[in-house]
Amino acid sequence: MTRQASLRLGLVQQPCGNADPALNLDRSVRAIRDAAALGARLVVLPELHLGPYFCQSEDPRLCDLAELIPGPSTDLFGALALELSIVIVASLFERRAPGLYHNTAVVLERDGTLAGCYRKMHIPDDPGYYEKFYFTPGDLGFKPIATSVGTLGLLVCWDQWYPEAARLMALAGADFLLYPTAIGWNLDDSREERARQLEAWVTVQRGHAVANGLPVISCNRIGHEPDLSGQSGGIQFWGNSFVVGPQGEFLDRADDQEERILMVDIDRQRSEEVRRMWPFLRDRRIEAYGDLTRRFID
Questions:
Q1: Per-residue pLDDT tens over the stretch 125-183
Q2: SS3 per-residue string spanning 171-234
Q3: Is 47 designated active site?
Q4: Catalytic-labelled residue, pool 47, 109, 131, 225
Q5: Whether 157 is catalytic
Q6: Per-residue pLDDT for 1 more than 60?
Q7: Domain ranges for the chain
Q8: Which listed residue (55, 109, 117, 120) is catalytic?
Q9: Residue 225: active-site member
Q10: How far apart are CA 264 and CA 242, in angstroms?
Q11: Largest interatomic CA distance in the chain
Q12: pLDDT tens across 256-269, in order?
């Protein structure tokens, strides 16, 4: 199949805090349909978009939210992908076995089939982000998923801080790096600290684009979501979903409040051109990097 010179992408920045999963699902489905109507061939949703970010506290009853893959959500998004003839990236709380759960991103091909899954590898355990209580680290590795629109280097949220993850996806042939995300501010932090955190988040991902010569697609949620345990004031998700090209140049960026679909045309030839100018992969000294597999060099 001959690929078009550009790929039209739809990136959905939405609130996900409604306690009724059906309403969150309806919001995502309407955004997917709107993006497809605008010509998107690939649509990306935020991390765990079917409901509130439940990891703000540790509650074993919340494991009831997990679902099988394949299962009801992959069936629904697969049918939608087939109907609209697009590729959809969704993010689910996976129930693999009793007491064994993953934070899993799924890719639905435009023929409705499940093209592949990625299980989040880096699992945080910070105030308001108690993910280690719920999620087992992924065991599928850093393997891009081949689709009709390109090979997707799919990573999830906390993964986006690790250059090793981005590099391994690039070395395995990813055409794009995609980061479904749920990240925001602690309302007790100062405005200055919030600004530093946001710019660090953007900067590190732009660095992955530059270092690997690949477009980076980062999709975050918006809105305030309370901590139902009452231990904190909740999280203000900071949005700022964005797409950058292989030199880290912004192709589009949302703000911290607006619900919107970012529509971006990605030039498929730019990575080839940039990698010829900046041949970082050629000049890597792989024989000298063995210590990267150590936790720390004493």
A1: 999 999 999 999 999 999 999 999 999 999 999 999 999 999 999 999 999 999 999 99
A2: HCCCCEEEEECCCEEECCCCHHHHHHHHHHHHHHHHHHHHHHCCCEEEECCEEEECCCCCCCCC
A3: yes
A4: 47
A5: yes
A6: no
A7: 6-281
A8: 120
A9: no
A10: 10
A11: 56
A12: 999 999 999 999 99
